[in-house]
Amino acid sequence: MNGDTDKTSRGVGGDRPTPDRLLHAGSEGEYTAEDVVLASGRDVNPKNIAWAERRMAEKGQACMDELLP
Question: Where are the domains of the chain?
Fold first, then answer.
């Protein structure tokens, strides 16, 4: 490290808390079957990718909403 403090961990404006909109990952963006596997805490392998693809087909956006904060 170069001695500088990490400004992202201190929030916007220095010592104020970081706003919720910056903390939560959520599932508002695009995602892949690999993302679903990783969010579930599983290893990325063909069996788990197939599981994630089925889950995405069945639940749509909710498959990530259930896994992420």
Answer: 31-69
**CA separation for the pair 56, 31 (Å, rounded):** 10
What are the CA-CA distances from residue 37 to residues 22, 26, 67 (Å)? 23, 15, 10
Please, what is the Cα angle at 63 between 26 and 58, to 5 degrees? 150
What torsion do the CA atoms of 41, 47, 49, 53 make, to the nearest 10 degrees?
-110
pTM over 0.85: no
Model confidence over 5-43: pLDDT tens digits?
444 445 455 677 777 666 655 556 788 999 999 999 999
